[in-house]
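Justification of resources, computational component.

The compute hours requested in this renewal are based largely on the per-chain cost of generating structure records like the one below. Each record pairs the submitted sequence with a full structure-token output. That output is archived, and it is also reused by downstream analysis tasks.
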Amino acid sequence: MKALIVCEDTNVINNLDDFLNSNGFDVIVYKWFLKALDNIEEIKPDCVIISAVEYPRHWKTLVQFLKSGIGGDKIAVVLYNPIENSKEEENKISYLDVVYNLKDLTTSSFKELSSTLSDYFDKNQSVSIEPKNEVAEEIPQVENLVQDNNQSIKGTGCFIFNHPFTKRFITGNYFDYNGKTLTCKIDYDTDDDFELNTFISDFSYIFENQRKTCGVRINNILNVNNEKLLLMEVA
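The structure output for this chain reads:
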């Protein structure tokens, strides 16, 4: 089996690598989030451990991409997260089906993680692919959009791109996608400014359980219920 570590801390990487190797995994390490995302389809990992320390916002997008099926089915997602979470954050971890929330690198935590992964793979070893949910006929209004990705609704999904000027990751969910335009809802407050007609060359998104990358141009910028929306046109 293969395991992917997405983390920048050498000490954490070494501890996770020792643990995974001792449990029979071949380990691949990426310190750069986007590089890991680019190679998940090729790697097809059985287990992914991502650090919420370096990627406190973007781990959710990676999990959504994994849950879409781009790296394979039944991937065990583990979050390395030594930071105390809010109730809302704990709910998101649960909602996104994170298999284990690793709080520290102690022997007892690794023993518990080993047991959890063993149970997970035993349970899912012969599980067949579940059928897709029936496609909804209507796209919900902006105020009713769920924060996390809902692949069962036609024309919706998650996205990620580098801000053209600050180069920081921008993530969120899109809706109203018709093949030419899409509306992007950023999933956290950001001070990054966006300008009309700005071209973004590395816009990645999940559509029909496949990862796609294209160039987009910002056609409009809206603020709805204190949430920033970007209207994009596929270039």
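The chain has five helices and eleven strands. Residues 136 and 153 are 5 Å apart (CA to CA).
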